[in-house]
Amino acid sequence: ILVALLIFSNFVVNAVEAQLLPSEGQQVGVFLGFEFFFNLCFSAELSANFYAHFFRPFWRSTWNVFDVFIVLISWLSMFGGNIPGISVLRLFRAFRVFRLFKRVESLRIIFEGVLASMKGVGNAFVILGILMGTWSCIGVEFFADAQPELFGNLLKSMFTMWQALTGDSDYSGMARELMYTDGLYVAAPFFVLYGFIAGIVMINVVIAILLDAYLRKTAEAQAEQRSRRRAPIRERLWLLAKVLCEGKAAVAAQVHAAHVLQASFKRFLERRRRLADKPHRSAMRALAAVLSASVLELFSEQALAQLSARERLGVLAALWSSRISRDRLKGGHFVHCTEQDT
Fold first, then answer.
1. For 206-222, how does the pLDDT look when each residue is reduced to its tens digit (9 = 90+)?
2. How far apart are alpha carbons 239 and 98 in whole angstroms?
3. Which residues neighbour 239 within 8 Å (Cβ) at sequence distance 6 or greater?
4. Which of 16, 43, 92, 277 minimizes the number of CB atoms within 10 Å of its CB?
5. How far is CA 41 from CA 96, 247, 335, in A?
C-alpha cells in the first residue's frame, strides 16, 4: 500500500509539473527535490525486492524487469544531462504510474486480461481490416467522383471508413450528402451494411474477447488467493527481522524443515485415521452382508416381479453396494430388470 501511494504521489507531482511548466527559479528546485526523493524511495523498494527474490525469481518476473528499466531511466534523466537523446528518455518517467498495476491487484488483473486477449483481439482486427479494405475499394469505385476528398483513393477511403466505424459526427452528414446532394442512393445500403457488420458485430466481438480474458484472469486470481493465504502482518514482520538477523539461507532451510515436518505430521494423522476407521469399515461390511442376505430372503422372485422397474432398480442399487450381495447377484437372475434398465 505504501509503495502504491508513493507511485500515485509521484504521478500527481508529474502532473502538476506538466501543468506549471517551470523553467527556472525556485519551482525547478522543488520539483527536482521531489524527483530525487521518489527515485530514492523506488530504488530502496527495488533493492529490497531484489534481495527478497534473489536471483532468478527476480528476473523471471516481467514486472520486476519493468521496474528496473523505469528506475534506471529516472536516474539517467536526472544526472545524464549530456547524454544524447536524454529528453526522449525523460518521457519514460510518465510510465512510472504503470507500476500501480503490479501493486493494486484489481488493476493488475485488468492489465493482464487485456494482454492475454491480444491474440484474439488481433485476429478480430485483422477481419475488421479486411472489411474496411473491401468497403474502401467499393467506396472508391462508387463515390470517388462525387467526394474525391473522402473517397479519392484507397488511403482516403480507408480513413473515411475508420471515421464511420468510430461513429464520427461527419458520418451521418457524409451519407446524406452523397444521397440527397449527389443523388447516389447506393450510399444507403453501403453505409448501413458497413455500420452493422463493422460497427456492431465486430466491435462487440472484440468486447466479448476482452471480457472473456478478463473473467478468466479474475477466476485464476481468485483461485490463487484461495490457495495462498498470507500470514498476518505481525508474523511477516517477525520473519523479515529473522531474515535480516540470521540470513536468508538459514531461514529458508528452517522453513523447508518446517514444511517437511508438517507434511510428515499430516501423513501420520492420515494413517491414524485409517487405522481408527478400519474396525468401523469391517463392521459396516458385515452389517451390509447381513442386510443383503435378509433382503434376498425377503424379496422372492414373485415379490420382485410385482415391483415397478424403478423400485427394482432401487433394490438392485442397495444390494450392489455390498461385495457379498454383489457376488450373489452376479450368479442369479431374480431381479427381472431389462438390459436397458440395468
1. 889 888 888 888 888 77
2. 30
3. 231, 251
4. 277
5. 13, 24, 80
**Measured distance CA(125)–CA(42) in Å, rounded:** 38
Q: Phi first, then psi: give them for residue 61, nearest 5 degrees.
A: -85, 125
Q: How far apart are CA 155 and CA 242, in angstroms?
A: 66
| Dihedral of alpha carbons 288, 294, 296, 301, sign | negative
The C-alpha cell that represents 166 in the structure block:
468510430
C-alpha cell at 12: 500527481
* Amino acid in position 331: G
Residues of the chain short of pLDDT 70, as ranges, are: 23-27, 80-90, 169-171, 227-231, 277-342
pLDDT digits (tens, 9 = 90+) for 100-145: 777 777 788 888 888 888 888 889 999 999 999 999 999 999 999 8
pLDDT value for 87: 64
Q: Which three cell numbers stand for residue 101?
A: 498495476
Query: What's the pLDDT score for residue 335?
Result: 46
Provide the CA 62 distance to its chain's centre, in angstroms.
15
DSSP 17-56: HHHH---SSHHHHHHHHHHHHHHHHHHHHHHHHHHHTTTH
Between the alpha carbon of residue 160 and those of residues 136, 166, 262, the distances in Å are 8, 10, 67
